[in-house]
From TrEMBL:
InterPro entries: MBL_Glyoxalase_II (IPR051453), Metallo-B-lactamas (IPR001279), RibonucZ/Hydroxyglut_hydro (IPR036866). It comes from Adhaeribacter swui. Its cofactor is Zn(2+). One of its GO terms (molecular function) is hydrolase activity. Transmembrane segments: none annotated. This is MBL fold metallo-hydrolase.
């Protein structure tokens, strides 16, 4: 599985395009907001000759959903989220303008992701792990064959997701990390929703929130 990241919007959110040798791809957490960011995403997909087949959110905070409607309209794909995060998604129509995102367009999910489900595209299979705490319906996507994890805002390089937003809970987040992420191999590469990549092993050793 090949992971390509783009940093979009005022929150420096990491948007991910995942594809394999079949040139099939999925888009995770499109944060593209303005036309320049949208064009950057479109140009990459066109240049690589990719076919977008799915749109998914790890969770539904505003910085991770700004490009949902654009991606869905451009590539004729539906949105999938964890059902528990639907209230979070619905709230962004209110929160968006307060963060300066006055042009945010809501897109509701057509499908729901479930813990333990396998998300497949091309020849690639992703395990869906349920990791609430930062958001009530947060999920992450793990590719076992290449030991790569799309982690959303659960785990960062020597940090963790904030828990002061509606639906957040610190103890729940720590539990999610320790029970869902730390059992993964130490060599697992972590692609977070913000900031640089890290590994599970590095965070076990050096993350001050998890010692």
């Amino acid at each position: 599985m090949i992971v390509t990241s783009f940093t979009f919007n005022a929150f420096a959110e990491n948007t991910y395009v995942l594809h394999d040798e079949t040139k099939t791809c999925i888009i995770v957490d499109p944060g593209c907001y303005d036309k320049s960011e949208q064009q950057t995403l479109v140009d990459f997909i066109k240049t690589e000759g990719l076919q977008v087949t799915q749109l998914v959110n790890t969770h539904c905070h505003i910085d991770h959903v700004l490009g949902n409607k654009f991606v869905a309209d451009t590539y004729k794909v539906d949105l999938a989220i964890h059902k528990t995060d639907l209230p979070t998604l619905r709230a962004q129509a209110v929160f968006g303008p307060s963060y300066g995102f006055t042009k945010y367009e809501e897109l509701l999910p057509a499908h729901y992701l479930q813990e333990g489900q396998v998300l497949q595209f091309g020849k690639t299979e992703l395990q869906i792990l349920f990791t609430p705490g930062h958001a009530p319906g947060h999920v992450v996507f793990y590719h076992e064959a290449s030991q790569q994890l799309i982690a959303g805002d659960v785990l960062f390089h020597r940090s963790i997701g904030r828990t002061d937003l509606p639906g957040g809970n610190y103890q729940t987040l720590i539990q999610s990390i320790k029970t869902q992420l730390f059992p993964l191999p130490d060599s697992t590469k972590v692609y977070p929703g913000h900031g640089p990549t890290t590994t599970i092993g590095e965070e076990k050793k050096f993350n001050p929130f998890l010692r």
